[in-house]
Design a protein that fits this description.
The chain is mainly alpha-helical and 236 residues long. The chain has 2 domains: 8-38 and 160-234, Orthogonal Bundle (Endonuclease Iii, domain 2); 45-155, Hypothetical protein, domain 2 (Endonuclease III, domain 1, Orthogonal Bundle). Helices cover 58% and strands 0% of the residues. The chain contains 12 helices and no strands. α2 (23-34) crosses α12 (198-211). The two termini are 37 Å apart.
């Protein structure tokens, strides 16, 4: 379910973007170029959340190995919570930023135990999408992208994650202003992404950013979204 615009001004902005940048065509053009990615089956939200924390600032391969190292060293999340941060950091050293990530994970587990009484996020699956997002954002060190990825990937909730590629693309297209907060950008895309296409749009925009709408020397002439791109139309 899309987020409710905060006020009439936000609603007007959303309607203007929808008129100028029709997202159903954006999704269609991306799928014609890259195919339609399919979500994996639902999974444990807490495990997904911790895996996403570990994925930050490292490669996918390193991230997977780091998560496996953590799971091998600790028999459950209770044992992670009981461990010193230094021990957690040693277990996740491969993925980089080990001390920082160990603190975030330890704090997350501590807060979850205090708020919910046990180390599980299974209960958020029954929450409305917005409520689940707002709940996860109460945890220190957990940003909008991490929350959105957890809810979309693990529970198939329609919360849209933005990464650096997607920010770059949407700023070039004129969907997002140059100066916008991370949280506000995520809420705006929750309204703009077509229902049922959150995952497809997320994955295909990342593919577009890596292959075509690159940080330097973007291949605008090959872009399937060129007709909706303010930047691209000045380059061809």
């Amino acid at each position: 379910m899309a987020a409710k615009p905060e006020n009439a001004k936000d609603l007007a902005i959303i309607e203007q973007i929808r008129a100028e940048k029709p997202f159903h065509y954006i999704v269609q053009n991306l799928e014609s170029t890259f195919g339609e990615p399919k979500l994996s089956p639902k999974s444990d939200a807490l495990a997904m959340l911790i895996e996403i924390i570990l994925s930050q600032a490292t490669s996918d391969a390193n991230s997977r190995r780091t998560f496996q190292n953590l799971k091998q060293q600790f028999k459950n999340w209770e044992s992670v919570l009981a461990a010193d941060e230094s021990v957690i950091a040693d277990a996740i050293r491969l993925g980089g930023l080990a001390n920082q990530k160990a603190k975030v994970i330890k704090d997350l587990l501590k807060q979850l135990k205090e708020k919910h009484g046990k180390l599980s996020l299974k209960f958020i699956e029954k929450m409305p999408d917005e409520e689940a997002r707002d709940f996860l954002q109460t945890f220190r060190g957990i940003g909008p992208k991490t929350v959105a990825c957890t809810l979309l990937f693990a529970l198939h909730k329609e919360i849209f994650p933005l990464d650096t590629h997607i920010f770059r693309i949407f700023k070039r297209m004129g969907v997002l202003p140059e100066k916008i907060s991370d949280a506000k950008a995520h809420r705006l895309l929750d309204d703009l992404a077509p229902p049922g296409k959150f995952y497809s749009l997320h994955v295909n925009l990342i593919r577009l950013g890596r292959q075509i709408c690159r940080p330097r020397e973007p291949l605008c002439e090959k872009c399937p979204l060129i007709e909706y791109c303010d930047y691209g139309l000045t380059k061809i």
